[in-house]
Amino acid sequence: MTPQPGAAVPHDEPFDAVVLAGGAARRLGGADKPGLPVAGRALIDRVLDACAGAGTTVVVGPRRATARPVVWAREEPPGGGPLPALAAGLRAGVTADVVLVLAADLPFLSSATVRALLAALGDRESGQDHDGVVLTDPDGRDQPLAAAYRAESLRREIALLAAEHGGLSGLPLRLLTAELRLRRLADPTGQASFDCDTWDDLSTARARIREHGTVLDEWIATVKAELGIDLDVDTGVLLDLARDAAHGVARPAAPLTTFLVGYAAAAAGGGEQAVAEAARRAAELAERWAKEADAGEAEA
Description:
By secondary structure, the chain is an alpha/beta fold. The chain has helices at residues 43-50, 82-91, 111-122, 151-165, 174-177, 199-209, 215-227, 235-248, 253-267, 272-299; strands at 15-20, 37-38, 41-42, 57-60, 71-73, 98-103, 132-136, 142-150, 182-186. α8 packs parallel to α10 (272-299) and α9 (253-267) packs antiparallel against α10. Mean pLDDT is 85; it is low at 6-10.
């Protein structure tokens, strides 16, 4: 069974990542595309969040501020295209057998999709040994810059192409992928494979992130990334607590109570269990408070 991009798939094999963050961005008027914000975070930082489990992450392109440390590299010649950039990234510090290759303009790429790509590459139940797994968009098009590859396969084919053409500059990426045995991982919603090539694309990404039903999850994920918090919390529990505090005590009690829950959890050593326990105790207190208020009204 092929794992889906949004599925939480375990993956234990070490991997590195190469993020391509160069290019002229001509359709964006030469703007620094990787640095453009979506929901308050640069596109490149959103991609770096998705591949945070990599042993080494190499970013190929001009140096810029990033949310976490990376290894920087530049293609030769600068602006020579994705093949020279990929070759430079592989040389700059990739030592794992498996390497993610990602564009820096994928605002909806998630760690779950990354794990699905890696798991599909490691799955040999089909009896085939693949060189890579690429995400495919809803129209069935391969997305070779949203993919996981065997590093040695990339090095082999890049060396052959360089020898055949006298260099890599200007060569299309499809010359490389055409020589690889690839497995496809469908992205039926088009979210994970959505990239920002134009201002319209950027506007679409910003609008999607604020859609009803997803905005809260996006906001929580962005805040956690901004604050450096790696913690999965049951937001439903916290929302219920905030509601109970607002209704049973007073409206301003909602944000203050959730703040105090977080503070108490941190004082108790932090972690998901500490948050859950602090939320439980605060919720029980809010319930007792509300019952007393109801009893008082009944007596009156």
